[in-house]
Amino acid sequence: MGQLVLVGLVEPQADMEDAFNEWYLGNHVEDTARAPHVKLARCYRAVKGFLGEPPSGYLAIYEVNIDDPAEAERVLGDYQRDPQAWAERQPGNGSLKVIGAGWYEEVLAFDADGSPLAETPTTDTTQEIS
Length: 130
Fold this sequence. Notes:
The protein is 23% helix and 26% strand. It is of the alpha+beta class. It has one domain: Alpha-Beta Plaits (2-Layer Sandwich), CATH 3.30.70.100. The protein has a 4-stranded antiparallel beta sheet with strand order 2-3-1-4. It is globular. The protein starts with a strand and ends in a 25-residue tail after the last strand. 15% of the residues are buried. The mean pLDDT is 92.
């Protein structure tokens, strides 16, 4: 089975940082991590720009054990629409501003010594992005 990552560039809506911290950081990331086929969820806060300003205040990365992005999106959507999926789920509070998001597949991976990782797939990098 392949692996995709869902990457989200997000930040709080204006004047809603406390609500964002409570819902997005305090509930939504964990909730999404509990979805079927999600292997790992991580969220990072921007601390400094590189070659300009960071594109968003936060970066969320969800590793998913599905190789078809349409199927991964369907499974995640079904989970998020199911009110019984996680008893501790809190409803969205309008605090989330999505700057951008997308599904990505790995094309290269190296360890700290510069050695290619064996599980790195061979991918046709000429494919169009839709």
